[in-house]
Amino acid sequence: MKICTNFLNLLKVCMCVALAFAALETRAQGESFTVSGTVKDASGQPVIGATVFDTTTQKGDVTSTTGSFSLQVVPGSVLKVSFVGYAEQSAKVVAGKTTYDFVLESDALEIEELVVVGYGTQKKASLTGAISAINNEEIITTKNENVQNMLTGKVAGLRVRQNSSEPGQFNTSMDIRGFGAPLIVIDGVAGGSLNAISPEDIESIDVLKDGSAAAIYGTRGTNGVIIINTKRPQSGRVALEYKGYVTIDQMLDETSDYPDATELRSLKSRLAKEDSRFDLINDFKGDTDWVREITRTPVSQTHYVSLQGGNARTNYLASVTYNDKQGIYKGSFDESLTAKLSINHAMFDDRFKIALNVSNKIVTQGIVPDDLYMQALSRNPTIPVYNADGSYYENSNGANPVGLLKEQNTENKYDQLMMSGRISVEPVKDLTISATGIYMGDFNDYAYSTTQKHYSSTMGSTQGQARLSGGHGEDKTLELQADYSRKFGRHTLQATVGYSYNDYIHQSSEMYAYDFPIDGFGAWNIGSANSTLDGTSKLTSYKYRIKLIGFYGRVNYNFDNKYLFMASLRHEGSDKFGKNNRWGTFPAVSAGWRITQEKFMRDAYWVSDLKLRVGYGI
Questions:
Q1: How many CA atoms lie within 13 A of 549 on its CB side?
Q2: Position with higher pLDDT, 604 vs 30
Q3: Neighbouring residues of 608: CB distance < 8 A, sequence distance ≥ 6
Q4: Based on the number of CB atoms within 10 Å of its own CB, is 542 exposed (0-12), middle (13-18) or buried (19 or more)?
Q5: What is the pLDDT at residue 124?
Q6: End-to-end CA distance of the chain
Q7: Contacts of 584 (CB under 8 A, 6+ apart)
Q8: Which of 170, 274, 376, 545 has the most CB atoms in a 10 Å sphere around its CB?
Q9: For the whole prediction, is pTM greater than 0.85?
């Protein structure tokens, strides 16, 4: 917590100093006056939503539907005009001149696709590692209930498995190229959870699949890395967006090969004539479709609202997502509320930047017994659901599925919070120094209970059971990083060095009791259980702490956009390992040759891009 406190104090000091300098700089200029003008593209069409910014007063305006703008300026300041996909334009303010018109040209570098790699970005054409990217166009064309399903079938080598039919993200697992679960990085936060974000908030997804690409994350990147960038604030007029979905699911008919009560009786009568052993099949005089008794046609809904706006200096994005997902089984559900806020602030010609992000997701899940479907599928269809007195019809051949569903209550709740703040400074051209503070907190409560009508009570020895468990984790990270990027002639050089400190604490506890005098309290009166009174209830708790320190660096070299080279190194230590094995070094190197950039390939229009690459990493 001390790290986060120090980081916030540093943030406050930097903001106060920056605002003070900005105020002094504004006073040093002459009297302000109003200027106006238009912003158009090369074809003469107005550019709507472009940002016009005064670098001295730190004030700006956004162009209207006709491309016009108007704002207060001071003599000697500089007007800067920017819009996504266009090269930035600027003009110096001259005393007495009140009209300024701009023509924006397309920016090829802006349009070229960027891919997020470990602790930075690269042009897709310059990659030398095995990295797959899913852009925003691919994301918005599909509707998925969770991030894992969004990735299904979109990345070669990434396997996504649905472990059960219940709603909720915990029922899905992933691996890259057959190895274990990959590291999740969300907005630069390593160790994040896919369950903590809403699919509607995602802007892009990049998957680092080989050792040369993932080695910069050290031990945590051994099984690959999935990097997710959420939507960022954009300067422009205030924009309100709403998305809503209603989905209806239907279970595949897997019971058609199983006889119903009428078919079973007919089959028994026919086969018993050939073999008397078929007379042993019991007919309980009922007619029950057990699968139908426990399932339903689930109707789910999703509502997403976002609000964004601001100018070239300060912009924001806030969103709220509500999900209500019903499961195939009666009583199963996944209800969640996700809130996200991002604020960006820049000053001194974008040489000083601040970015703040807060995201919180609260989830409640209703869970049904694991063996419910098999119990229903294998149960004799001639067995009735209830006895004449209204009690569940039970026997020693298996539990009554309806009784399992109604007399057992399992609810899981969790709350995941992510907060991050980043300060970046460009002291000299081509060099950026940044500091990032991250806090993640997770809270979990699990409650399980059965009544005295449950199978374990009527056919067993316990008169009701209850289990309560809960946990809380705190993950704090501080990262210091320097980035250098320069292009000279046909050479392009990028270098990154950094330091990372991570401190994770987790604690949990569990209580289990049985034999309750009455029903009605669920899991919330464990003290009244007979097992508690006679000392046979179970109580457990544990707590652990893990620290991770890492030093990392990477160099990228590009010659003439043909010959590519990358080398990275990470040296990290963790108290998770023994005293003699706490530190490890993770080198990586890769190279690429863009064959399509060679002269002998320039006439091969049928090949859009051909690259030969090789890489090695630990």
A1: 4
A2: 604
A3: 596
A4: exposed
A5: 75
A6: 32
A7: 218, 219, 571, 572, 573
A8: 376
A9: no
